[in-house]
Amino acid sequence: MDMTSSITPVRIGKTRITDPLFGAYVDMVAEKVIPYQWEALNDRIPGVEKGYCIENFRVAAGLQPGHHQGAIFQDTDLYKWLEAVAFCIEYGAGEKFVPIADEVIALMEKAQEPDGYLNTYFTIECPEKKWTNLTEGHELYGCGHLIEAAVAYYNATGKDKLLNIACRFADLVDRTFGAEDGKCHGYPGHQEIELALVKLYKVTGEKRYLNLANYFIRQRGTKPNYLLEEMKGRKGRNVFPEFAEYDDLYAQTHEKPVEQTTAVGHAVRAVYMYTAMADLARELDDQEMLRACQTLYDNITTRRMYITGGIGSSGKLERFTTDYDLPNDRMYCESCASVGLMMFSQRMGNFLEDARFYDTVERALCNTVLGGISKDADRYFYVNPLEVWPDNCLPSTSMSHVKPVRQGWFSCACCPPNIARTLASLGQYIYAQSDDSVYVNMFISSKLDTQVGDKTLGLDMQADYMNGGDVTIRVTAPENAGLTLKVRIPWYLENPMVNGEKAVTHRGYVTVPVNCDTQVVISGSVKAKFVAANRNVRADVGKVALMKGPYVYCLEQVDNGCNLASLFVSPEASISEAAPEESLPGNLPTLLVSGERLVETIATHDLYGNPAFRMERVTLKAIPYPLWCNREPGEMMVWLHARV
Question: What is the chain's alpha carbon radius of gyration, rounded to the nearest angstrom?
Fold first, then answer.
């Protein structure tokens, strides 16, 4: 594989999202999401689950008496919220949040112990047990999200108080963990700090942070298995009852990460680890780690990923299972997992200058990540099913984790601020740059003003491909600047043309020289189509799904009546486009297709009887999957029975 390291995401403040769909969601982050989530962090939203996040910090800081409440890793909700705030500030829409952010940063400083330790659970409840439960304690996971928030806030504001808090904690971790005698030879139960330490290295220049990240990856999977030995020593006294079935596959400790060939275990932890591995491969020019990343990426995207970019097919322990095991109604597909998959795929795409990795970034973003938040920005999905029958989403059953409607908040609320920070930083996924080029990785209408080397470049992209139009990119740069524009040609664009000529790609990009004022028109056909799954995906055998561009479509009860499982469609049926739903954002077309409804199966009202099938013709209406459950609650289905 060729190694390259010059491509980096553009700075978030250099972009402006104008797209009718994504622009609306990005604007909502500052207008609605950040204020709403701040109220949730303070437990001031009636009728939703409390998380006790800010209250825990106040107790740890000695500002009020009390015990720790909520999840053991609750601190990270605040850290991800702060990171989203930082991205909003850098984007130019979050200055009003600076006083609140600075106030809560001061609270965090009060809660931090003199040696740099910061974790409200252990500080309040059991300070003598620090670092004794790496499997479940999430101290290193929390440190990782603190670091990410600190780097983002420093980049956005230039203020270093939060960065200093993070460095003090990271320095303590560095003094505590490592291969040297006298240090703890453990590693995170929940990966995250590894990718964060790489970010901290980049902003501080301190190589020891990079080395610590590498140690955590390289130590994982060695023998004896640190986490399993730790659990044996606790003799079954677990924080999480479900960890009675904890194993080395769940923890990705069954073998060294560089030797792993299949994505296993907790899906979020896995892709956070793979993201760190991609970062380390790039920073350390580590071919072994790069090969592992490529192998793991291929395993996910060819055998263990949903059509929506969701990952994690088991509702139990939120984990990967086996190749092609992709059930539609009882999977997990956590929103955080798709965020992590976006991060991993972005790193690989920029590292290898290969546009195909952005196929996965776009798939996850346009479906699962966007679907995780309501159009009004105050409701969230933690689990993202492809089929919902609300009546069977019952508590105390195997379906209890599936919620048929988005929730106002969660006692474990990792997903809402994760979605917020992703949308707030969307520009870094649309554009990247090198010393002499700008890369357009997704067709999302937006503006960019950036420095490429010592040259100033302006870009205005108008993308109307979902409604039969072209993608027009206007670039302004100095004359004879020697710059190029590299545009990803996505998999769904048929017969792609660039300024009227057939597109010629290298690693999925077309290259256009930029000279003064340059206009690039990307044209082609983006058709609504039926998609089938590999026959080894047993849940989807004999079924088809609808897609247009990167968007998966789904049927909802509000348009198609109840018992969606009784609907059939021919893969040869013509698909017509209709006007967008007025109540839904984004100006995305609805799809109409002629199908059939099975209205009778037996001649009696008994539970079973002789077959007596009778079908009726119906017109089926589909809307973009990310917009489901924004009108009336009810059934939803992506995969339909095929009449072949």
Answer: 25
> What is the spatial distance between Cα 112 and Cα 124, in angstroms, rounded to a whole number?
12
Cα separation of 563 and 560, whole Å?
9
pLDDT tens-place string over residues 269-328: 999 999 999 999 999 999 999 999 999 999 999 999 999 999 999 999 999 999 999 999
* Residue 201 token pair: 């290295």
At residue 568, the 3 state secondary structure works out as strand
- In this predicted structure, what is the pLDDT of residue 237? 67
Contact 348, 293 (CB under 8 A): yes
From 336, 414, 415, 629, active-site residue? 414
Q: Measure Cα distances from 467 to 421, 489, 526, 549 in Å.
A: 29, 17, 9, 10
Q: Which residues of the chain have pLDDT under 70?
A: 1-5, 235-237
* Three-state secondary-structure class, residue 508: coil
Catalytic residue among 90, 136, 192, 318: 318
In the annotation, is 318 catalytic?
A: yes
DSSP state, 454? T
Q: What are the b/e assignments for 447-479, b being 16+ CB within 10 Å? A: bbebebeeeebebbbbbebbeeebbbbebebee
- Residue whose entry in the numeric block shows the structure tokens 């999430």: 138
Give 109-146 pLDDT, tens digit per residue: 999 999 999 999 999 999 999 999 999 999 999 999 99
Q: What is the pTM of this model?
A: 0.97
* Tokens found for residue 166: 């993070």
Query: Is position 629 annotated as part of the catalytic site?
Result: no
Mutual orientation of helices 53-60 and 98-111 as an angle, nearest 10°?
50
Task: Identify the CA nearest to 15 among candidates 478, 350, 459.
Answer: 459
- Name the packing angle between helices 34-41 and 415-424 (round to 10°): 150
Judge whether 359 and 346 are in contact, CB under 8 Å: no
How many other CB atoms sit within 10 Å of the CB of residue 580?
20
Beta pairing, strands 437-440 & 15-17: unpaired
Residue 290 burial (CB count, 10 A): 22
Cβ atoms within 10 Å of 241's Cβ, excluding its own = 7
Q: Alpha-carbon distance 154 to 167, whole Å?
A: 12
Q: Do 633 and 404 touch, CB atoms closer than 8 A?
A: yes
